User: What shape does this take?
Amino acid sequence: MSTERSAPALSPPPVDEALVSQAVLDQGTVLRALHDAGVPPWLELDLTIGQLRALYALFRSGPLPIGQLGAALGLGKPAASLLVDALVQRGLVERNEDPQDRRRTFARLSPATRDLLGEQRSGGRELLAGWLRRLPPEDLAHLARGLRALAAQAAAAGCPPPDRSPSEAHRA
Assistant: This one.
């Protein structure tokens, strides 16, 4: 007969809800400052939310068949085709037949659109990097540690890390 007792399960420490609320407010302040730092050139394009989502989907993934783009956006193939047509007419997207299967058509960002979105993305990152460089080393270390822990929580919840743009993937 064993006399060993199992150790009681440790419960996590109580959460400081005021600290959580403050972190959420501070994160919102940083995001607003990044957004307000400069009016993105694509805001002048007068795009619908659906069109903007399509552009970013193509930026993240590279060329996609129209049906696959529609599926990523929650659209049927006819609606996705109309969306792509509107973007093609504005010179933001190019539409090309698949050389191996002429029934399949790909949508890809025009070079100018790809450059515009890439500049927007890198501009925000550079602004944030500049703010981070001005932090005292100890604050930067604590922030980096906290963000790694938060990213791990997001990954554990099934949220993959953000995709790299095609241009970033080529540099890696």
The helical segments are 17-36, 49-61, 66-73, 77-89, 111-133, 137-156, 166-171. The mean pLDDT is 83.
